[in-house]
Fold this sequence. Notes:
Layout: H1 9-14, H2 20-30, H3 34-42, H4 44-50, H5 65-100, E1 118-120, H6 126-133, E2 137-138, E3 140-141, E4 146-154, E5 157-165, E6 171-179, E7 184-192, E8 205-211, E9 218-225, E10 230-235
Antiparallel strand pairs: 1-8, 2-4, 3-10, 4-5, 5-8, 6-7, 6-9, 9-10
Amino acid sequence: MSARVEHTDVGAYALGLLEADDKRAFEAHLDTCRACTAELGELSGMAGVLTGVGRVETEREQPGEGEVIDLLRRRKAADRRTRRGTLIIGVAAAVTLVAGGIAVGSGLNAPSSQVAVGETHHGTGPAEQFYEEGTPAGGVGVTGVKGGVVYESKGWGTHAALKLEGVRGPLECELIAVSTTGERKAMTGWAVPPKGYGVDGQPPLYMHGGSPWNPDKIDRFEVVTTAGRTLLTVDI
Length: 236
């Protein structure tokens, strides 16, 4: 073995399997690595548990120390890949929700700067709070549809909150930002259930959305169905 330090040496060190050069190198590494120090504490009882356990004689040849260390390293690397993969999947799912503008449930208590999060009127959520505290720009809707948008400039573009009423489902809708040059970008999207929003005693819908354009680059907001029908237009 060489004296090159691996984070995965912590298991071999706890078992007393490192050679002299590797042991000295790893002990020096512990002075600067909190992760290995913490992991060593978790494994501190392992050597005691194994103390006094004699060699088990079997017809099958027992692995040498080098093989044990290699096994420990490979097992540790596999565990870390598994944990890293789980984290990446979780982050990717979150990014997909935000980037794709998918509406998620009303139980979220996210800050008002978070985009692409919507909620129905089951308690005050961040979109409703931002809308109610702002000055809405009123929209013009098709028959029975009402709504408005409150928006603010952010470092990354424009944050907007929509209030929508008088819509019956089932429908799939998007909040669209239309630039002063006519370019269109979806800010968020959601599904309208059969009972609808803001009809027959149903609460209105409040939604967050985000655009990479600053407000001075936006001409209007539109609520559009995925079939291409415009339900609400909000000029700004």
